[in-house]
Specification:
Blueprint (H helix, E strand, L loop, with lengths): L23 E7 L5 E5 L4 E7 L7 E6 L4 E7 L8 E5 L8 E7 L7 E7 L11 E6 L4 E6 L6 E7 L13 E5 L5 H35 L1
Antiparallel strand pairs: 1-2, 1-12, 2-3, 3-4, 4-5, 5-6, 6-7, 7-8, 8-9, 9-10, 10-11, 11-12
Family: Belongs to the LOR family.
InterPro entries: LOR, LOR_sf, Tubby-like_C
C-alpha cells in the first residue's frame, strides 16, 4: 500500500536492526492467549506484544520472535492525557527511557497520540511524532512531527472480501523504507492498551447504570 506524502528519510527510535531498505507490510493479529502477534505477509513472526499488567499499572512488553524483551511499555498512573513511557529492555529506570507518549487532548473521540523522544533537542512541548486516526476502524497514520505532512506508516484493514470470520481482529500496517517497525508496533500496542482500558471502563459504567435502573 503506497503512503501519501511519505518520506524515505531513516527513522530509527528503538533500533536500526528493525529497519529494512524497502517498503513492506506487516500483519497484526492476536493469539488465543491474547498476545499481539506481528508477522510479515508470509506469516513469519517478527515481533510479539505481551500484557503484563500490575495492580497499579498497565504494562506491555515488546518481544522478539524468540521471546527476548526489546522494550517495556508502561502507563504513567495518576496522569492526564493517558501518558505512557517506553524503556529499553525490561527496565523502568529513567536512564533507559527511549520515548514517552500522551494523548493530545484530555477528551478525544479519535486517536491522537503525541510522541516525545527522551533525547529530543527541540522544544519540550513539540512532539517528534504523532499517530492519528480511528482505532476502531483500524485506520491510523504515523506522522513525523506535529502535523500530517510526512507519513511513515499507516494502519489499514485487510481486504474485507477476502477476510475470514476468524480474522476479524487482523489488520495490516504499511511501513516506509528505513522506518523502525518495532517503534511503529510499540505505538500501536500503546493505542490498543489505552482503548482496552477505555472500553472496560465504559462497560463497567454501563453495567452500573443498568444495575441501578433494574434495582430501582
Amino acid at each position: 500500500m503506497a503512503l501519501a506524502s511519505s518520506s524515505n528519510a531513516p527513522v530509527s527510535v528503538i533500533g536500526s536492526e528493525f529497519t529494512v531498505p524497502y517498503a513492506f507490510d506487516i500483519i497484526v493479529d492476536k493469539s488465543p492467549g491474547g498476545e499481539m502477534i506481528i508477522t510479515d505477509v508470509n506469516h513469519k513472526i517478527l515481533l510479539k506484544v505481551k500484557s503484563c499488567d500490575t495492580s497499579f499499572h498497565s504494562e506491555r512488553v515488546l518481544l522478539t520472535a524468540d521471546d527476548k524483551v526489546i522494550v517495556k511499555l508502561r502507563e504513567k498512573i495518576m496522569s492526564e492525557h493517558n501518558r505512557w513511557n517506553v524503556y529499553r529492555g525490561d527496565s523502568k529506570a529513567d536512564e533507559n527511557l527511549i520515548f514517552s507518549t500522551k494523548e493530545k487532548n484530555w477528551i478525544q473521540f479519535k486517536t491522537s497520540l503525541q510522541v516525545f523522544l527522551a533525547n529530543k533537542t527541540s522544544g519540550k512541548d513539540v512532539c517528534d511524532f504523532m499517530i492519528k486516526g480511528s482505532w476502531s476502524k483500524k485506520n491510523c497514520q504515523v506522522y513525523v512531527g506535529d502535523n500530517d505532512s510526512i507519513t511513515i506508516a499507516q494502519m489499514h484493514k485487510k481486504d474485507e472480501s477476502k477476510k475470514l470470520k476468524s480474522e476479524k481482529n487482523k489488520f495490516m500496517v504499511s511501513i516506509n523504507p528505513n522506518v523502525d517497525y518495532a517503534f511503529v508496533v510499540a505505538l500501536i500496542a500503546i493505542i490498543g492498551a489505552i482503548n482496552t482500558v477505555n472500553e472496560n471502563t465504559s462497560a463497567g459504567i454501563l453495567g452500573e447504570v443498568i444495575g441501578a435502573v433494574v434495582g430501582s
